[in-house]
Structure formats: C-alpha cells, structure tokens
Amino acid sequence: MNWKDFPNLNRKGQIRFLTMRDGTKIRTASWPSQDNSRAIIVLVNGHREYMEKYSELISDLLMRNYAVYAFDNRGQGLSDRLLPDRQKSYAEDFGLFSDDLDEFMAQTVMADPRAQELPRYLISHSMGGHICLRYLHDFPGAIEKAVIMAPMVEFNLGNSMTRTVLKFFMRCARRLGFDKSFAMGQGAAHSRVPDLVKQKLLTHDNERYAQEADIIEANPDLYVGGATYGWLNTALDSIEKIHQAGFLEKISIPLLVVVAGADLVVDSKASRDLLSGYDNIDLVTIEGARHEIYRESDQYRDQLWQKIDDFLK
Predict the structure, then answer these.
(1) What is the tally of helices (H) and strands (E) in the chain?
(2) Judging by beta carbons within 10 Å of its beta carbon (0-12, 13-18, 19+), is residue 245 exposed, middle or buried?
(3) Alpha-carbon dihedral sign for residues 196, 130, 78, 233
(4) What is this structure's pTM?
(5) What is the rounded distance in angstroms from the CA atom of residue 7 to the CA atom of residue 66?
(6) How many structural domains compose the chain?
(7) What CATH number has the domain bearing residue 21?
(8) Which residues contact 93 (CB under 8 A, 6 or more apart)?
(9) Which of 33, 111, 164, 221 is the most buried (most CB within 10 A)?
(10) How far apart are CA 115 and CA 156, in angstroms?
C-alpha cells in the first residue's frame, strides 16, 4: 500500500485484488486484527466513492482498536469498471454488490486469524447502506451489528410530482436504449476548482472537502464522472425491492441508522418512514448535517462518533 494513498493512518494496511465469480476484480484493503482488537469492522462505501475518501474514518477506527476491512465497489475506485468508458457509473443488478460483499467476507474477512472469536460489524454510507440492507437480508448470520449512515433508500428528487416525473423519464430512457449514456446533469469532468454547489450537498467542512481533489490528482483513475441511466434504473429497481413488505423483517440484528438532517442527496424522510418502528433499529437524526456525515464538520462528526461508540461498545 502506498502510504500517501491513505494519509494520517497509524497502521499500514494490505492491498489486494479479489476476483469475483463473474471475473470482476475488486480492490480491497485490510488492517487485520491484533492482540488488542475489539472487533472487526467491514466498511462499505457509497456511490462513486473509493477507500481513500475514508482515510480519516479508518484512522478513527484503528485508534479505537478495531480491525478494518474495506473495498472499492465494482465499477468504482480501482475495482474493475463495467463499461469501456471508465468515467461512466453503470450497474446491471444491485444484487451483485451484495454478492461481492458476501465474497469479500468469505475470502478475506473470515480469513482474519481472529474472525471466529471477535464480533463482526458493518459500517456503511449512502449506497453502501443500501448494499448493507441487501446483504443483511440475503446473507444472514455473518454480521452481529451494522451502522448505516445517510442510507440510500430513496433519491431526493423533490416533491412527489417532481419525483414521479423524473422517475418516469429515467424509465423511458432505459426503454429507449440509453442505459449506457450519462444521465442528464451527470458526466462532469474532475476539476481542481472548488465546486460550491456540490460541496453544499456533501459537507460543511471546506478542508475535508478539498482533500478529495488532492486524492484524485494523486490518482485520477479513482474518479467516476457520474451515473448512467442504467445505474439509476438498477438503483430504482433495488429501492423498490427494499421497500417490499416483509423485507426488513428478515433483518434481525441491531442496526444503527444515522440520518443527515440537511441531506439533499438522499431522502431523509423516506429513511425515517421506512426504518422507524423496528425494535432492532436505532434511528437517529443529526440535525443540520449534510450527506457525507463521516467527513462533516466536527460539530456533526462528533455527534456521529458518540452514536457509533455507544452502539458498538
């Protein structure tokens, strides 16, 4: 592992590539358990993300004596991209993300020398939270607790009429054969110039936001330009699946769901509506926080860590 790729870590990790059943290669990173490790954390990142964005979060976990395992989702980071144009985010079936997590668990996490004796937890964000729900539903028994930040259970598309129109447009684009085309408003090239509009969607913290540009400049291959209509439609299909009656009832482990109160990327109200009322789900809102709570300003991030620490202790 290049130490510069994961700044501010107090332990060096190991990078390796895993080949999935369909031949897709997934980039993984691991900081295996030590004698003082409290538990094993598996980190599942969000859409268009890559492990380097989580350097500070990983460092915080390592300082808390957790073993950490992470990977780039297929189609993102340095894992295999799914179209010849690597700038396009594409997906054929969100179930494949869940399958990849299961293979990562079996091939890598369970190979940890203390995997059988330490608790195993998931921490996930946004699309990663969606994958987490799919995984916990499809593969029960491997995880004891899970933390889901700003879950992608519904896109933030405005009021109900606007949402209906936009979803109809997305569905039409797929039927017309535009699956592999950038969706409207997507396809942005990477720029060093601060994008204040984008930042207002993600975090209040200027310094943490600027670190992403440094990471991309150091390794431009990490960047994804935006979602295709294929990705959006596959995401909508999966969103409908997790909203089906009885889906969440099959997840019995304790969940901590942390909703960002000022989220403009995913629909926080939909998260509260879907995930409230379950005895095993602790649903909390951090008022004022933007979508990427894990790299928010300290006033929000400290609240996040207090919730996580209390939940996992």
Answers:
(1) 9, 10
(2) exposed
(3) negative
(4) 0.94
(5) 18
(6) 1
(7) 3.40.50.1820
(8) 234
(9) 33
(10) 38
**Sheet of 145-149, strand order:** 14-19, 25-31, 66-71, 39-44, 120-125, 145-149, 255-260, 281-286
Three-state DSSP state, 36: coil
Which neighbouring-strand residues pair with 147? 123, 256
Beta strand ranges found along the chain (DSSP E): 14-19, 25-31, 39-44, 66-71, 88-89, 120-125, 145-149, 226-227, 255-260, 281-286
- Residue 98 burial (CB < 10 Å; 0-12/13-18/19+)? buried
Residue found under tokens 């203390």: 114
E strands, 103-152, where? 120-125, 145-149
Whole-angstrom Cα distance, residue 219 to residue 213? 10
What is the spatial distance between Cα 40 and Cα 142, in angstroms, rounded to a whole number?
A: 12
Beta bridge partners of 228: 182
Tens place of pLDDT for every residue, the chain, 313 residues?
444 556 657 678 899 999 999 999 999 999 999 999 999 999 999 999 999 999 999 999 999 999 999 999 999 999 999 999 999 999 999 999 999 999 999 999 999 999 999 999 999 999 999 999 999 999 999 999 999 999 999 999 989 999 999 999 999 999 999 999 999 888 777 766 556 567 788 999 999 998 888 899 899 999 999 999 999 999 999 999 999 999 999 999 999 999 999 999 999 999 999 999 999 999 999 999 999 999 999 999 999 999 999 999 8
